[in-house]
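Support request, please re-run this one:
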Amino acid sequence: IKNSRVSAAKLPAAVYEEDEIARAVRRSAENLGWRDEKRGAFGEMIEEGARVVVKPNLVLHKNRAASGGDGILPLVTNQTLIKAVVAEVLKANPAQVLVGDAPVQSCDFDSLLRETGLGDWAAELQKRDLRFK
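Re-run finished. Output below.
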């Protein structure tokens, strides 16, 4: 890692609109010096032809809190953020991009993928971009 600083992007509301999240990812990358004009938010961090793993926080398929909590929101990274990060990673021209995680053992991973829509998104992206695994 060339740079280990931290950046945060303030959003106008607690709503995960795709455009807002994508802009926030790019702003954070710019603040950290990772952005390359031609190769996107992570162009200065990811070498062309690299193999990249994006590790979201996929913990559990349902919230087991007695009160029901906030559904699965506190248990997984919002899928809009995952999609925005992967889109920017692909702009850096890696050879391969994987999204991988190790949820807790009792997680029904197929249910988690259905609930978040990540399963359908991943299947569609794999058809369009052979670098995505």
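The first strand starts at residue 51 and ends at 54. Strands lie at 51-54, 96-99.
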